[in-house]
Amino acid sequence: MNLEKYELKGELIPIVTYPDPVLSTKAVPVTEFNKDLQHLVKDMLYTMYHAPGIGLAAPQVGKGIRLFVLDVDYDREMVTTASGKEEPRLSGFNPMVFINPVITGTSGTTTYEEGCLSVPGVYEEVKRYKSINVKYQDMEGNFHEMEADDMMSICIQHENDHLDGIVFIERLSNLKKQFYKKKMAKEKGK
Ligand code: ZN
User: What is the mean pLDDT of residues 69-98?
Assistant: First the structure.
């Protein structure tokens, strides 16, 4: 997909898939808010939109640091190009960056059929908090706090789990968890 027309610049970073060990490792806090960090964020957003996905955590691109990007607002519409090819057209971007996030409050519950770029082809309902409060830092290291509901809340919880080494299939029933663990290990072995 050509993202340049959206003024999105960056490089694609390969997304690691389950059961890569980096996905089950607790990530460490970001301490340096420098150019390298900005560069990584730019490439992660680029990679997320390219996938396309609504969230991407640093461990998913092999970096064990507490950082994720998300966009739960943008639209993807399939269009036919002049050459007759089907491709997604994106609009309404709202990229967000969360560094060293901490969930400080929760309320209610909700379920949603989640998927994950690191667990291709698996979609399962996961129970999450309906609303959360989250504290985080931006790329300059400034602290922020926000309340998130519904999709934003679900996405933050999913991505925040990645920073604690938890992939969403870990949140399923034991039976489903074992099924997918075996399936993914088998596919990885091929
Ligand atoms: Zn994920």
Answer: 90
